[in-house]
Structures are given as C-alpha cells and as structure tokens.
Known about the structure:
Layout: H1 4-9, H2 18-23, E1 30-32, E2 38-40, H3 47-56, E3 61-63, E4 71-72, E5 76-77, E6 80-86, H4 89-94, H5 100-110, E7 116-122, E8 130-135, H6 138-143, H7 158-163, E9 168-172, H8 174-183, H9 189-193, E10 197-200, H10 208-218, E11 225-229, E12 239-243, E13 248-251, H11 253-258, H12 267-270, E14 282-286, E15 290-291, E16 294-295, E17 304-308, H13 311-322, E18 326-330, H14 336-339, H15 341-359, E19 366-368, H16 372-379, H17 381-395
Parallel strand pairs: 3-19, 7-9, 9-10, 10-14
Antiparallel strand pairs: 1-2, 4-5, 6-17, 6-18, 7-8, 11-12, 12-13, 14-17, 15-16
Helix pairs in contact: 15-16, 15-17
Amino acid sequence: xxxxxxxxxxxxxxxxxxxxxxxxxxxxxxxxxxxxxxxxxxxxxxxxxxxxxxxxxxxxxxxxxxxxxxxxxxxxxxxxxxxxxxxxxxxxxxxxxxxxxxxxxxxxxxxxxxxxxxxxxxxxxxxxxxxxxxxxxxxxxxxxxxxxxxxxxxxxxxxxxxxxxxxxxxxxxxxxxxxxxxxxxxxxxxxxxxxxxxxxxxxxxxxxxxxxxxxxxxxxxxxxxxxxxxxxxxxxxxxxxxxxxxxxxxxxxxxxxxxxxxxxxxxxxxxxxxxxxxxxxxxxxxxxxxxxxxxxxxxxxxxxxxxxxxxxxxxxxxxxxxxxxxxxxxxxxxxxxxxxxxxxxxxxxxxxxxxxxxxxxxxxxxxxxxxxxxxxxxxxxxxxxxxxxxxxxxxxxxxxx
Length: 401
Ligand SMILES: Cc1cc2nc3c(=O)[nH]c(=O)nc-3n(C[C@H](O)[C@H](O)[C@H](O)COP(=O)(O)OP(=O)(O)OC[C@H]3O[C@@H](n4cnc5c(N)ncnc54)[C@H](O)[C@@H]3O)c2cc1C
Ligand code: SF4
Ligand code: SF4
C-alpha cells in the first residue's frame, strides 16, 4: 500500500483531488506547489485511510477495460466514432474544437436530465488558475467552454456535490474521469448521482509556470492580467491575455502549446496510459485535418472527434444528433491516428517508460487491462529501449512533484 508522500515523491500524482473527496478530512486539501502543480498535502494517513487512497487514486494504478469486446488497443472501448460540432454557432465558436462537450452539457441541463454539470473554468481570484464548479445554465457552461492548459483538481469537491443529493454530469481530464470511476468503488453515490462522465483527449497538464511563461512572452504582467484564455473563439483559437485597461495580447496555438506549455508537463503525464478518456461515456478531441502527414493547426471552423465509449454514451450521442444539439458524421477508426499521433506514441511506449522507473528503484503505477503489452510488442524492441533509456535519463533530472 502506498502512502501520500510515497505517491508524491515518486511523481505519480495526477492532481485529480479524488483523495480529498474520499478521505473527507477537514485538515486536508489541494494546494499549488512551488513547481506549479496542484497536489494534496503530504499528510501521514492512518492504515484505514491508506487503504482508501489505494482504492481511489488513479495515479497509483488503472484497471482498464481491455476485456470489452469493442476495445481497441490504442483507442480503448468504442461504441460509436464520429467527427462533428455543436449546431449552435456560438457554442461551436467558443468551444475548444467543435464545442461538442459544451453542447452535450447544455443539452443535459436544459432537458432537466441533470441538475448541473461539474466542470472547470478560470478561477475568479486569478485568471490563470482553474476552479471546478457546478454550472447549471447555458451561459455558465458557455463561459467554461475551451481548454485550460493548467492544473485543475475537479474531484476535490465532488463529495460536497454528492452531499447535495443532486444529479449531475462531470467533465474532466481522462485521469479525473478514471479517478471518478475509482471513487465509485468507495462511494456508491457516484454511480447513482453522476449519470454521465465526459473526458477530452489529453496530452498532459502543464505547470502554472508554463502559463506564466506565456504571459511573459506576451509582455503582460501577471498582476495586470484580468482574463486569460488558452484557446477557443475559433479552432484552435488564440491564447489571449487581457490587461486591466482592456488591451489584449495573443499568440497562436503552435506558439503557446507547441513552443511553451508542452515543455512544462507534469511527470505523471509522461507515463500516462489513458490520454483518451477510456473510462468516460463520451470522450472528445481535436479532429485535426492533416497536412503533409501531420495535424494542421490552420484556423478554421471547429471540429471535434467524438468517441462514445459506453452504451449510455452512444445513446446520448444519438439523442444529441436527433435533438439538434450536434451535427456529426461517422469516422473510420484508422483515421484517429492521423489526428492524434502523440497519443499513439505515448500509449505504445508507456510500458517501456514505466520499466525505466523499476531500474531507478521508483514506485511504478499498476496498469492493468489497457493492452499495453500488445502495443509494446507492436512498437518493437528498439523503440521500447529508446523510450526506457530516455525516461531513465530524464527522470533523474526532472521535478517529480
Ligand atoms: C490539459 C489539456 C490537454 C489536452 N490535450 C489534448 C490532446 O492531446 N488531444 C486533443 O485532441 N485534445 C486535447 N485537449 C482537449 C481539446 O483541446 C478539446 O477540449 C477537446 O477537443 C474537446 O473540445 P470541445 O470543443 O468538445 O470542448 P469544449 O466544448 O470546449 O469543452 C471543454 C470542456 O473541458 C473542460 N476543461 C477545460 N480545461 C480543463 C481542465 N484543465 N481540467 C478539467 N476540465 C477542463 C471545460 O470546462 C469544458 O467543459 C486537451 C485539453 C486540456 C485541457
Ligand atoms: S492522483 Fe488524485 S487521488 Fe492520487 S494522490 Fe494525487 S490527487 Fe490524490
Ligand atoms: S496526460 Fe494523463 S495523467 Fe496527465 S493530465 Fe492528462 S489524463 Fe491526467
């Protein structure tokens, strides 16, 4: 069984906040570390509390669904696969890609199927921080649309929302949704009160320092920044900072994510076996068009990849089409790899990367039924050795926590 300091010192924490909800201790919460990540305090826990942590923590391990007959080794369970966008032009424009997650959230709230959607947005006290709140109207959900490439802990207050007795949907990173599935093993209210779970594909969470670097490059002082968006208002949309006097500075996606933010990812993301939301009912992603064999980030109308992973997710997808929340068309499974090459290489190399941790004498996460052996065999010995060696070298230098 792992202790909290053990999880943190070995760089396994994703920052989801699930332990805070599961343990329910008034003296325990998430806080921003000097490295710019959200982490639980490294408290000493009782044996009983450590057993709960072991059960709920997605950083420690994931039990996948590879036994599912619709399971694809790279892309997880697939009940239906499509590309599409929100029909409401404002939702499509505001959304990160096609605004599909926001359209589903609005549809569920407006049809009364859920009381609210628990999702992330900019914190009120600091525009580069995130806050997860209950959003119960179109306006609130529209305000939360778009990707925020900064730490968030969407599960930290999920117990409070369960206490309200209300039904709600959840949107988060794949590790948050996986954490929610693990939390359900500890708290049966999760399955009763959270009928829909949505994820987006995720390449990793950058530290807060990444955003501070973007601000520096934009020549906007953090103290003077009154709002900050990473994307949206087009696809992929600009990273845009607004100063107190109303002036703005912006940079394109390639410059913000590609040149700055993705150099600040937390360690756990490098060994993440589920960047595609395998535990969600529906997972969405950028359905990039290609150019010269690579995703093309030229600005255009947004388009999302839509992967329904459960029967419930497929039914919701069909209903969203029938009720005019979204427009979509089917996609062949082979097309995903062209849109999401990073997800192919990371999942294929996770086994080698975690093997390197063994050589370093570090705790390894327990990943089961995620088809990692099958992918490693396909990737070939040389690729695996290169990845193991790279992780071995880098892990001695990088900040793990
Ligand atoms: C850290 C991060 C990494 C990503 N990596 C990839 C990737 O590798 N490949 C890819 O295709 N897409 C990635 N995305 C997601 C992608 O940018 C789009 O969100 C996705 O295409 C869905 O688009 P949409 O228009 O349907 O979502 P929208 O309608 O814009 O809805 C997005 C939802 O995500 C929530 N959200 C945004 N940021 C966070 C956050 N930090 N924590 C929790 N919830 C959040 C919002 O509150 C909103 O509900 C990433 C997003 C983030 C935040
Ligand atoms: S991964 Fe989540 S549950 Fe595990 S220690 Fe970190 S915040 Fe807590
Ligand atoms: S890459 Fe994986 S561990 Fe990192 S934030 Fe995304 S889902 Fe979580």
